[in-house]
Each structure stands twice: as C-alpha cells, then as structure tokens.
Design a protein that fits this description.
Radius of gyration: 21 Å
Number of domains: 2
Bound molecules: uridine-5'-diphosphate
Structural class: alpha/beta
Strand content: 15-25%
CATH architecture of the largest domain: 3-Layer(aba) Sandwich
CATH topology of the largest domain: Rossmann fold
Shape: globular
CATH superfamily of the largest domain: NAD(P)-binding Rossmann-like Domain
Distance between the termini: 7 Å
Number of helices: 12
C-alpha cells in the first residue's frame, strides 16, 4: 500500500516503521524543519549541551514491550527524574514524599506517622474526587495544595483547578517514604544521543521517505491508500466547528557559567513567579561534561492560531467540540488520527509508542 503520514513525531515514526517492515511504502510529510516532533533534541551551539527543544522529556514506562522497542533504536543511559520545587521561599523535594512533608511542616515523622498526619490535614469528606482541587484536598490537604499545586496549576493551565479533572493530578504520586523518583515506573532513562537520533533510527528504512518543511493538505488524501494524521484534528477539518483549546509554552533561554541550579528541573509553586519551572538541560545528560550551562524559563499561556500547541485542555465538564471532531474522524475510511494532537489527549512518550504499535498491528492492508 501507498501510505502517507502527516508528522514525523513518535506516533508516525513508529507506525511508519512497523508498516514499512510489512512491505508498505511510507511517505512522511513534516511541516517543521526537523523530525521527532516535540521530543526533538539538538545540541546548543554555545554550550554543546543536548537541549530538549520543546521542553523536558524523560522516558519512563512500565511496559516492557515499549521499553524494549525504545532500546532497539537508542542506547539509553540510566536517568532518574528528581524534581525540586521552590515555593514560599524554600526549596522542597517532589513528588510529595516524606522529606517534603517533614521539611514543610518542620516535623520528624515516620512513614506511619506521616500518613496519619496527612490524613488529619486531608479533607476526608471528599469520597470521590472529580476535580484537580478535590483530588489535592483529599490526598494532601490544603497547606500542601496551596504550596505546590494551586499556583503552579493556575500558571500551567490558566484555569482554576476546580475546573480541571482529577486525572491531571493523579499523574503524580504522594509517597510516605523518602523515594523522590518523580515516576513510579519500572523503566526510566535518557537516550544517549537524544530523542531525534532515536526517531531517525526508527525512520531509517528503505521504504520510508521523509519530506521536511512540507505540510500535509487534506486534498492529498486522495493520492494515497491510507493516511495517518498526527497534526491537530481541528486543523485537519479547517476548524469547522471552532478551535480546540490548547496551552502553548514560551521558553526563555539563558546562559551561565558552571551550574545554574544544581538540578534538571526546578518547579516554582508560587503564583507570583511568572514561569512554571526552569529546566537546566545539562543535568539531563549526567554522563556528559560541559563548562557552561544553558537553562530555560518556561512560561505557559493560551495557544493562539500561530503558536505551537502543546497541552490539550481537557476540562472536568468535558468539551463538546472535541466530541464533534472525533465523530467526524470516526467516519473517515482511510484516515487514522494518531498521537497527542490527532486525538487531543496529553500522552506520554511510552503511551504514544504503545498505541502506535497497537495501531500498526491492527492495520489491515
Ligand atoms: N503540578 C503542580 N505542581 C508541580 C508539578 C505539577 O501543580 O510542581 C500539576 C500541574 O497541574 C501539572 C500536573 O500536576 O500539569 C501534572 O504534572 P506533570 O509533572 O505530570 O506535568 P508535565 O510537566 O509532565 O506536563
């Protein structure tokens, strides 16, 4: 079959590779000047540091099949994401763990004591948390919510956490031990040569052709037997029902000598600090040495038509628009919408790979 793909991010790369190996001819159209979508990495010219151009990406998964898949195309270095948060004039450990609790409340609690202590702070009248705020109040109580989540989330999403679903906060664990690994997955790491090299290896197959700086138009669908579309689903339909809501990010790049903040990611919980976090990318490559350092202040704001969409905004009360677009998409015979923008879901890289492998397996030529 003659198959086209819109976008050279992880979704289309994985599907393209799987289908190329089955003998299909794959033509990929990528509007940007590079492959790998938002996990694109490149060396910063001034410092030589490998920069995650669209913000920090840490590969983590519980799925051994996905981990093995990623390791087939990249050599992974051990990496554990340990995030810090500056809030109310102090620095704490994230995700909320026993060190965070003891330092925040000036206590020396044991795990069991901390559990009882937090339960005494938590709003146990919330039995089935629906919103982000309810989830926070139920599991950590108001003090920790205000310090770590309320301001950060307002900055990140531009919305009151009452309007956001509990699922956003459920991404983060709360631990009553000193484990400060941000993720609870069995496998975690960072590709030695960056994500773009990994995606390049996935795409390196004689049946795959990639056109950079080439957008894909709906009118091209007729030229192919099937199309996998990883652009925005509302964009595909020329925004006929209106625009779906996204957050975009602005990164302000800065340089320093040596070590700027001592860790890869420092979150800022206070609403008064305009950025959500600062990431210092040389700390993502712990095996490299660089004299200078480059870091990025990260600002979140509403996505305007000419901005790059990052986070789909899924509200607690749902979104009629996305339902309309998904209905329309379901009626397409030879177009499959994939990935974060094609399905309007915030997906981690491992889920993208898993879904792409499943889609490839189900694809009937
Ligand atoms: N969050 C927060 N404070 C933090 C980190 C995260 O309030 O210091 C909230 C925020 O709403 C975020 C969500 O928890 O969107 C999930 O966090 P995660 O780190 O998974 O977000 P990511 O940066 O991966 O999108």
């Amino acid at each position: 079959m003659n198959i086209a793909m819109a976008g050279a991010g992880l979704s289309c790369a994985v599907i393209g590779r799987e289908l190329a190996e089955k003998g299909h001819t794959i033509t990929i159209f990528e509007a940007r000047s590079h492959i790998a979508g938002n996990c694109h990495t490149e060396r910063d010219e001034q410092t030589g540091v490998m920069v995650h151009a669209y913000g920090p990406h840490i590969f983590h998964t519980d799925n051994e099949e996905v981990w093995n898949y990623a390791n087939r195309y990249a050599k992974f270095q051990p990496y554990t994401n340990r995030v810090k948060s500056t809030t109310q004039g102090r620095v704490y450990s994230l995700p909320i763990n026993l060190l965070t609790i003891n330092q925040f409340f000036g206590e020396t609690l044991s795990p069991d004591e901390a559990k009882s202590f937090i339960e005494s702070k938590a709003d146990m009248s919330i039995t089935d948390p629906q919103s982000f705020e309810e989830q926070a109040l139920r599991f950590v109580g108001n003090d920790l919510y205000e310090a770590f989540f309320k301001g950060y989330t307002k900055k990140q999403w531009g919305l009151d956490p009452k309007k956001l679903p509990a699922s956003i906060l459920k991404r983060l664990p709360v631990r009553f031990n000193y484990d400060d690994n941000y993720f609870s997955h069995r496998f975690q790491g960072m590709p030695l040569e960056g994500y773009t090299a990994m995606v390049a290896n996935i795409l390196d197959h004689p049946n795959i052709t990639v056109h950079l700086n080439s957008g894909f138009e709906r009118s091209q669908v007729a030229d192919y037997d099937h199309v996998f579309y990883s652009g925005t689903i509302d964009g595909y339909y020329d925004y006929e029902f209106g625009r779906l809501p996204y957050r975009t990010l602005d990164f302000v790049k800065k340089y320093a000598e040596g070590d700027f903040q001592g860790c890869a990611v420092m979150n800022y919980g206070d609403e008064a600090v305009p950025y959500t976090r600062i990431s210092e990318h040389k700390h993502f490559a712990t095996w490299e040495e660089h004299e200078k350092t480059v870091y990025f202040e990260e600002y979140s704001r509403e996505c305007e038509p000419t901005d790059i969409p990052y986070y789909p905004i899924n509200l607690l009360e749902g979104n009629e628009l996305i339902a309309k677009y998904k209905d329309k998409a379901a009626q397409e015979d030879n177009v499959t919408f994939v990935g974060r923008l094609g399905t309007f879901r915030y997906l981690d890289m491992d889920v993208i790979i898993k879904e792409a492998l499943d889609i490839s397996l189900c694809f009937k030529a």
